[in-house]
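Fold Annotation — chain and its backbone

Encoding — discrete vocabulary of local shapes
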Amino acid sequence: MIRKTIAAAAAAALSLAAPAFEKYMMRIPDSLSPQDGAAGGAAVPGKEAASIPLKGGGYVVIWNQTPREKAPDGAAGGADVAPDVAGKDVVTLLRKACGKCPSVFAGIGGSTFFAFYCGGCKAYEGVLVSKGAAFTLSVYLPEGRGFDDEVRGILAQVEFSPPPGYGVDSALKLYGPGSRLSASVRYTVLKKMVEARPECWELVAALLDVSADRPATGEWCRRELQRLNPAHYGPPEESKRSARAFDAKNTDETDAAMAVLDAPRKAAKASASVPD
């Protein structure tokens, strides 16, 4: 509950901190003093990177390596955007791969960054699923730093969100918290949405919000939120502060690390049956 409250507060603070630094579906409040491109010696082609200074020196550098694909129908301007995985089992693949190599579940915005540490790159690399889209990221931290309290506080304010066309934003505006529709109407629609897009944690959270008088539904939602978004809903031990580099000589660990990055491309259609 505390984690959920913190995540909500961070999201609210972000929404009020306009204008904000924006770069390829990455939004950072100006209060964090973000810089365009890489800083602090991170080996990043600066095209899709942002650097955020730390109080004691050094930077958190976020490099957005998300493959650009054809925009879904309705996306603004027809620009290339992140892969649409709202109806796919991408988180299932990410968790399976992370279970086979050293990994961390770190919160970025309200979502979980499923990542491993690349010793050669000196960065945490992995995938974040936000509002139906998959983002492939590299996060560089100063040597010796992990996802400590300061780093986590910074990343909590960084938002990745696809443009219109994925259906998640519009669904949340119509049926999520703050909706003027009755709870029963919201429940009926959200249940169908979640069954079609069961790995979209934002829709599961919205369904939980209208399931107070449906214990079975509520329990299912809470269990799924822990699985889909462990950095915010899972037990504390799942959100480690650091991980050793995967062993490049260990075929299993190498294959698992590559499977993390391949998850958005290899994810298959997902479905679920939500209990009433």
Summary: Confidence is low (pLDDT under 50) at residues 1-17. The chain has nine helices and ten strands.
